[in-house]
Amino acid sequence: MARRALTDEQVQLRLQGLNKGAEGEWALQAGKLHRTFQFKDFVHAFGFMSQVALVAERMNHHPEWFNVYRTVTVDLTTHDAGGLSELDFELAAAMEALAG
User: Fold this and answer.
1) Nearest to 27 by CA among 65, 74, 64
2) How far apart are CA 2 and CA 22, in angstroms?
3) Which of 3, 13, 22, 90 has an alpha carbon 20 to 30 Å from 35's alpha carbon atom?
4) Mean pLDDT per segment of 10 residues, for the chain of length 100 residues?
5) C-alpha to C-alpha distance for 24 and 36, rounded to whole angstroms
6) Contact indicator for 74, 68 with CB cutoff of 8 Å
7) pTM of this prediction exceeds 0.85
8) How many other C-beta atoms lie within 10 A of the C-beta of residue 31?
9) 42 three-class SS
């Protein structure tokens, strides 16, 4: 299944929707959907990453991420679409739900 990149307008609309009511804010950084999560401690950060990994695997859509102690930094993009796709926003929404 070929994945299609969203237009700039579609990205902006979805970004606004994603950030509505979110505790932190997703932003566009270097053409990717970017967010930094802070947790109580390393165990909570790693638990979040483990939960997200299961969702990402089911979606066959995997994040670029980095963890140091209680901080998890995430970048999402759809490489085979050459930009952001619906999958990026679906995974970001799942991450928001799991982080809450």
Assistant:
1) 74
2) 30
3) 3
4) 85 96 90 97 98 97 97 96 95 95
5) 8
6) no
7) yes
8) 13
9) helix
